[in-house]
Task: inverse folding
């Protein structure tokens, strides 16, 4: 077999190997389905690894209020849980349209196929449970009419005086159909939009991420803001 044939086999197999030093979160396996309540109170969550080193990439010397992320998976689902401490939760509501999430506190998870970001897929979820799902292409070409594949996404949230939690289940079938799940690996960005002021629909944010993107100004829509979720 010649080198060209080997290359074609690797490409058609859809195998993805993370780059050296890529930040990786290991998603542990659970045998049972998780009951999605928005509270993250299912007993399986006790076995998940906790990712808590989120930061302000563009706010020198400042530390955000605590944010944590957990994930688990089983045969059919990827489960994710964001837990956010925030004493000033801002939610913009007018017509209850999904684009109103843009002016609200929220957690975000993006998925990319490759560094070209053509395309990539975005889920932005506010504390009331509204989901802004859209497809993007580099650079900042968004289609907000797009929706996550039907039946492939379950979202519940829980709001308290201390903050909020966002719990979601994403079907592996949807991730596979979008070309995202390869070799038990997902290229994903994990973010939080901290709305520090809201006047009507005009919102002011501080941006939070588990990775410092290679950008001098706030921007998650670039390849360097993504890490890896490795399904064990």
Result:
């Amino acid at each position: 077999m010649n080198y060209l044939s080997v290359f074609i086999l690797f490409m058609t197999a859809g195998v993805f190997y993370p780059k050296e030093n890529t930040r990786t979160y290991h998603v542990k396996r659970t045998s049972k389905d998780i009951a999605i309540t928005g509270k993250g109170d299912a007993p399986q969550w006790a076995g998940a690894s906790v990712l808590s080193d989120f930061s302000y990439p563009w706010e020198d010397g400042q530390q955000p209020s605590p944010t944590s992320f957990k994930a688990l998976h089983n045969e059919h689902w990827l489960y994710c849980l964001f837990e956010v401490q925030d004493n000033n939760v801002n939610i913009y509501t007018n017509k209850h349209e999904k684009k109103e999430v843009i002016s609200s506190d929220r957690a975000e998870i993006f998925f990319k196929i490759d560094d070209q970001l053509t395309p990539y897929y975005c889920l932005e979820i506010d504390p009331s449970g509204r989901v802004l799902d859209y497809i993007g292409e580099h650079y900042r070409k968004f289609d907000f009419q797009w929706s996550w594949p039907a039946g492939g996404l379950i979202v519940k949230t829980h709001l308290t005086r201390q903050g909020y939690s966002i719990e979601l289940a994403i079907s592996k079938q949807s991730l596979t159909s979008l070309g995202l799940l390869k070799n038990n690996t997902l290229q994903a960005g994990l973010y939080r939009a901290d709305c520090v002021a809201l006047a009507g629909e005009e919102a002011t944010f501080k941006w939070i991420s588990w990775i410092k993107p290679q950008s001098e100004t706030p921007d998650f829509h670039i390849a360097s803001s993504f890490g890896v979720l490795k399904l064990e």
